[in-house]
Specification:
By secondary structure, the protein is an alpha/beta fold. The protein is built from ten helices and eleven strands. The protein has helices at 5-14, 25-36, 40-43, 54-64, 82-102, 113-129, 181-192, 211-219, 234-240, 260-272; strands spanning 19-21, 78-80, 105-109, 133-134, 142-146, 152-159, 164-168, 174-175, 206-210, 223-228, 246-249. Strand 5 (142-146) and strand 6 form a beta hairpin. Helix 2 crosses helix 4 (54-64), helix 5 (82-102) packs across helix 10 (260-272) and helix 7 crosses helix 8. The mean pLDDT is 95.
């Protein structure tokens, strides 16, 4: 059973999904600076239409995520406004509900598989049971990433049973990723198969994702909704430019079971949309 809004707010704050979160302020500001300096790793596959200064990025994060507004708050804790989180969840639920009613074609993908996979799997099941087509392009696609030591490591695109894309290493262990490469490969396969039209094709109507999966989908012009932490400013900045439709701010690294009430709230909203 889904919680009501007040119950969900209390849960988000109690589990540090929102409210006072564990992501340190100094880490947030470092990422905002790197995004403003044009570091591709922090752009998550998005190409921005304007120049964003570090202060501009902070202002967006105050408005769309609820971090501390004071630019002189340099160290310590930071915040995510739980009211913004719930408002964005409701907007995401409305868009997912519309996809279900229209039986749209969808893509789901996460760069945070260790914690967020159950959220995406529940959404994927809801959409599939509603008659939506859940795509699985480029399954098995591989590329190499450079680790912190400078060594190159292989990554492979796989799908959870419900149809949620994620990356694994050579041993099959799920991997955290900010890269847009996998989503770009997924869309390239769909495009190469001649499915760029909306009528009867398998080009996605909606992407539900995070990190570079969401950024690349939004950059490609696909309706995109997703989740982002307060140290991942690119999706919020992309939303400010109209490239991402909905971004739900949350701490994306808490224990997976803590997201269950949030997921129930989201899908109840979608069912009523």
């Amino acid at each position: 059973m889904a919680p009501d809004r007040a119950e969900l707010r209390a849960h988000l704050v109690a589990t540090l999904i929102a409210g006072d979160v564990a992501t340190p302020r100094q880490n947030n500001l470092l990422h905002y600076r790197r995004l403003a300096n044009g570091d591709p790793y922090y752009q998550l596959g998005l190409k921005f239409d304007r120049t964003w200064t570090e202060r501009d990025v902070l202002d967006v994060m105050v408005e769309r995520c609820g971090v501390v507004a004071d630019p002189l708050h340099l160290y310590g804790d930071d915040t995510i406004d739980p009211e913004i989180t719930i408002d964005a969840l409701e907007a995401m639920g409305d868009r997912i509900g519309a996809a279900a009613r229209r039986r749209e074609t969808v893509l789901l993908a996460t760069g945070h598989p260790a914690t967020l996979t159950p959220v995406y799997e529940e959404i994927a099941r809801f959409l599939a049971e509603s008659g939506c087509r859940v795509l699985r392009p480029a399954e098995g696609w591989t590329y190499d990433v450079q680790d912190w030591r400078g060594a190159w490591q292989p990554r492979r695109l796989v799908y959870a049973l419900a149809g949620v894309a994620m990356l694994v290493d050579e041993r099959g262990a799920v991997q955290h990723s900010h890269d847009p490469d996998a989503m770009e490969a997924m869309l390239a396969e769909l495009s190469a198969n001649g499915v760029s039209g909306p009528d009867g094709s398998v080009w996605p109507d909606l992407a539900i994702a995070d990190h570079g999966f969401a950024g690349a989908a939004g950059q490609a012009g696909i309706d995109t909704v997703g989740f982002a932490d307060c140290n991942d400013p690119a999706l919020f900045t992309g939303a400010a430019e109209g490239k991402i439709d909905v971004v739900v701010p949350l701490d994306d690294g808490v224990s997976p079971q803590h997201y269950e009430p949030m997921t129930a709230y989201l899908l109840e909203r979608a069912a009523r949309a």
